[in-house]
Amino acid sequence: METTLSIPTPVGVFRAAYSDRGLARLQFPHRDSQEANQDSRNRPHRVVRQWHRLTQAAVRRILRGKEPGNLPPLDLSRGTDFQRTVWTALARISLGRTRSYGEVARAIGRPRAFRAVGSACGANPVPLIVPCHRVLAAGGQVGGFSSGLEWKKRLLHIEGVAIKSC
DNA sequence: CCCTAGCGGTGCT
DNA sequence: AGCACCGCTAGGG
Description:
Number of helices: 5
């Protein structure tokens, strides 16, 4: 049973889904954000509202190029061991810095798994919060982004990272 | 520049 | 078990 709540921002409405363990998913604004308030109908529990306040603040701060501040607990239980290992590594890339997929692979002790690292990034349930946008292809190419390359570029720009070949 | 082989994890049959 | 995907990379034309 998940609770879904929206996060209005100047660049669109993000949606956050909470399990009983914490923030389980974060979605970028949909193209047609006409689906106004599709929030869960019942009033969320106190703890979820508390988490949501933190998520909301974190998202807005990140969009302004600031540190996220306090985060709600993250529920990453749906990932495999490998994926969680990757996501944990991503969480350590600080604002304004980037790593290549290969560097992340080496950092987790699986130097040949760079391709799988890419897949794990794509499976990241909480983009922005777990900053998969800071992982670029080797040589400074942008690489991919499941939620849309434009978002990745925008986030990198916000964080002052220069992109190659553009 | 483009092309290719090789790579590891995951999800489907 | 097999297979087809992939947010990749390094090496060779």
